[in-house]
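Next comes a concrete protein, fold included:
___
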Amino acid sequence: MSDKQKQASAYWKENVKYLFILLAIWFLVSYGAGILFKDAMDSIKIGGFKLGFWFAQQGSIYVFVILIFVYVRLMNKLDKKYGYDE
């Protein structure tokens, strides 16, 4: 395997690691906070709405949008690290 192929393989391995971590966070927030821990979170209110309801309806969407920006930042750093930046 050439040096360029090893570098590309390491790049994609790190990329997949980032994807897995970020998707796991999104799953935990959307499924965990919106479904599993909803009853425990309902004792807290935000803007008159129960926190469990808020996460099920809005919170997971906000977290997903934040994770998109985190992914962009991580990928920009990764591109620079491996020399794929513009």
Observations:
- The two ends are 25 Å apart (CA to CA).
- DSSP finds three helices and two strands in the chain.
